[in-house]
Structure formats: C-alpha cells, structure tokens
Write a structure and sequence with these properties.
Length: about 150
C-alpha cells in the first residue's frame, strides 16, 4: 500500500494550502489519515497490509503505531539499513528517481541520527548494505513467514 505517500500528496493539493513545509509528515492530519486508511483498507480486504513508509521523527512514529494498536492492527516494522557510503553510491547511480537526488541526500543525516537514537530499536533491521533488492525482499518474506 503506497497510501502513506499518496495521503501526503493529496494533502499537498488542498486549497487553500496547509502551512508550508519541506515534508508532508509534519502536517498533523497526515498521521491519523495513514492510520485510518490502513484500518479501512484492512476492514475491506482483510489479509496483510504492507506500507512502505519512512518515518524519521519518533513522535510521528509513536502517533502512527499507537493509532494502529488502538485498532488492533498487528504491526511488523522493518528498517532497511545501508551503510552511508554504499547508500550514497546507490543514490548517485539511481536511474529511477535520478542521480544524486537532493531530497534523498537531504535525509541521509536525519536517518543516521534516528538510527543512532531510536529507529533501530523500534524495528527489525535488515542490513541491505551487501544485499540485492531481491535478497532483501526474500529476507523480509522469510521473517514474516516465521
């Protein structure tokens, strides 16, 4: 479910606009809308919901995870980690987003800080430094099955 990002994009389209920000996650409606969307989708479809989402602000993660818990939505959180040098190399050579994405480079230090202080303690960390995307997906699939 790419809804977390889609919700942010939808909030960007509101007129008159919400306060200016460099990250839609800062808007207070985003976090409860992510929770409510997940709840509604699961109510309709059942099963397992996969939500790719990078949340680097601990308070925001607390809001989302506690919201999911209030609705008894089971949660498995994985952090895909890569060491800084290989990660910079991936960003430099990205052919999808484009090489040296300023947005992706901007989040390198906030990620490193979150990883040092709280993020890795809140999740199952998958070190992707030496893994291919297929190997990473397989490792997560195996973890979820067990």
């Amino acid at each position: 479910m790419a809804a977390a990002e889609t919700i942010g994009e939808t909030l960007m389209d509101i007129t008159p606009g919400l306060p200016a920000t460099d990250n839609f996650q800062h808007w207070p409606p985003w976090r409860p809308l992510v929770v409510e969307t997940a709840r509604r989708v699961l109510d309709c479809t059942g099963g397992v919901l996969v939500v790719p989402m990078t949340v680097l602000v601990e308070q925001y993660w607390r809001e989302i995870s506690s919201g999911l818990a209030r609705h008894a939505i089971p949660l498995r959180r994985f952090v895909l980690h890569a060491d800084q040098d290989p990660l910079r190399g991936r960003i430099a050579g990205d052919t999808v987003v484009g090489p040296d994405s300023p947005l992706r480079l901007h989040y390198l230090e906030p990620y490193a800080e979150a990883a040092r202080t709280w993020l890795h303690g809140e999740a199952e960390v998958v070190d992707t430094t030496r893994l291919t995307p297929a190997q990473t997906a397989l490792q997560i699939a195996e973890a979820v099955k067990n």
